[in-house]
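Q: Can someone sanity-check these two? First one:
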Amino acid sequence: MDPRVKSAKRLLSLGVRAVLGVLLLLLGIAGFFAFAAGFADYPVVAPTPTAKPWIRGAYHVHTTRSDGHGTPAKVAAAAKAAGLDFVVLTDHNDFKPPIATWMDGVLLIPGVELSTSAGHLAAFGMQRPLQDMKPWGPPEQSVAAVEAAGGTAVLAHPVQTKNPWKDEATAHQVPGFELYSADTFFRQALHSPLSRLLPALGASLVNPVHGVMLLVAPEPEPTARFLELARERPRLALCAHDAHGLPAYETVFSALDLEFPPELLPGPLSRDAREAEAQVTQALASTQALCVFRALGAPDGFALEGYDAKSREAPVGAVLTVRLPEHDPGTLEVRVWGEGRLSPDGQHVELTGPGAVQVEVWAHAPGRFFGHEWRPWLVPSPVRVVPRPPGI
């Protein structure tokens, strides 16, 4: 045999063995994380049996009307299994979505994710059809169209590396901002395949919700950008599922949702789909909705107090109070970004200067191995901090 052919075969054999060795190693590591996932204990905060129920739902969900893997009926079934009351569907450039409807006990609300030359813009609550829209048009055209239709516009995954929002002028106009995004968590994990992606994939083999929660990690850049925009006027912070059916809709819905406290929207929703749509979209746009990483527990008993609820503003020097649900010591902590300082008791926030303050509750959640890691649990919209009135 020609020595060169023999050498080439040897190299090929070594290459195949190396690839198989790496795959076996990765499977072994994934198996370890799968084993550890069997011991992950949820929820971190036990439910309160006597608490009034909160209206719960999913926002930013794709179906087979665009690039989602499930029909609206499949999405509704998944939402029902996860205990949700509503789903806001936001298929790409779906300029004529179907009207709101009850399906399998879940309210399906029409929305849209618009592709513009500056990035993606999600929108919901339109009272009239969007006019003169074309995909990948100028961002100001989409923002104006949503406003003219009576809807609420939201910057979709605005700092994501794949599709960030690139137009500064319209960024200051749009009232909503996706502060946390399940799809962004996944894309960020792709940049850390060994420390984030592989543990999540391994855990998903045994505990899919734990697998999704392992993707959740602090993202300082969205928070910093959001607080910069929130200095000008009150802003709406939303957590987006950006669900396409992979991971499964039910898994993502069980890990994360948007909830309305009973004093904002007492249940049950109207059985008239159009009336129920108005109830949900008005509450969603009110800045009083709460993002909840639901796998960690229900928000029963949570409240953020000390600001004007109508304007979502408070003056410099005011003190916000964080009411925490009943919990075991060491399982929860309040975290503060922006113009606020957390008091030693861990439940009061002094407003230190004009701008905006973001207050979140984090939970000591099951980690990648057998320990625990801090993860966001309850995420309200920010409070705008205004100068103290003269003479005070």
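And here is the second, same format, sequence then tokens:
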Amino acid sequence: MQITDLQIEQKMWPLLRQAFRPMFLLGATFSALAMMLWLWVLSGAVQLPVFADVMFWHSHEMLFGFVAAIIVGFLLTAVQNWTGLRATHGRALAVLTTVWLLGRISLLFGAFLPPYVPIIIDLAFLPLAAILLAVPLIAVRQQRNLFFVPVLLLLALCNGLMYYGRLTGRFDLQQVGSQNAVLLITLLMAIVGGRVIPMFTANGTMTQKVQPIVWLDRLSLGSLWLIFALQITQLSSFIGAPIMAALYAIAAVLLATRCARWKLWITLKVPLVWSLHIAYWFLPIGLALYAVHYLNPSVTISTATHALTAGAMGSMILAMLARVSLGHSGRPLQPKKIMSLAFLLVIIAALLRVFAAWLWPAYTFDWYLYAGAAWVIAYLIYVFVYLPVLTTPRADGRPG
């Protein structure tokens, strides 16, 4: 970076120097706040003036508010390493962050607004992020990571389907939007996790990197693409429950085999690594629960979905937030010890939400409250520990 650019960089508010800074900080804060509000609603303590209803708000905002913010923050930060070009920062990042923030506010207070206001604001976020991601990738003709752009647009389509289903009274379309958003994010986690976990494991444990088996990786990701395609087009309803159960089971076995090769047991002294391994294990667990659901509906879609959301997404996001925030702020990859507690709490939250209510249904409401409380504490730990990291310049004096 030229000296004039560096001088401009040093005058810029640190929070706007890289996308991970505002997106991670606000996304993590919002996840804790949204979960607290959801728990208060469940307990009858408050009634929220949200867009549509609280069930829609909870499912939508944890996906398209919280998770989408983290995905965008990660991608718009990583693209600088991928391309060597300066990624989104400054005014462009401020605009993107403002659009995201206005979306959260307008949906939370949607009862006071015409329906089109929160919809238009919220639907603008992912396409805008896709454009900002596409520009540097196209500029250097980097095709390997260009597929993330249509993935963001597909995620925006799922968001639109949720709104369309809600406005037209088509609950089935609303479900198509939310469920396929979960599957698409699952696919992203499988892709990104497959790229980074073997490398992080080797670096963190000082062992040889486990080399990928090409056919296993292609079948694993291909099975997820196939499931997503069948679900988004609704062809899954025509091919029948037994076949869908088989497809989910195959995907679960393939991902479990892939994950087992990375040797979780050698990472137990490295919190930044074992947290990622356990998060990835929730992917085959969630897919296996989907398979069981198609054969035995007593295992609900909600249970399977929360294995992927509360389990895989919640755990992997927290682990990646802790690592990326240190690495991209020029700090050693040595998180504070309290982050191990945060990692454990979010895993406990997932286990309680997925399995406790299933095994001990008489205490379902209590398990939900305990799981939500563990989630809130886990993410608040991250926010308070990393607030100075995200709001101050890089420790090594470099731009970003």
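A (reply): Looked at the second one. Residues 8-169 form one domain. The radius of gyration is 20 Å.
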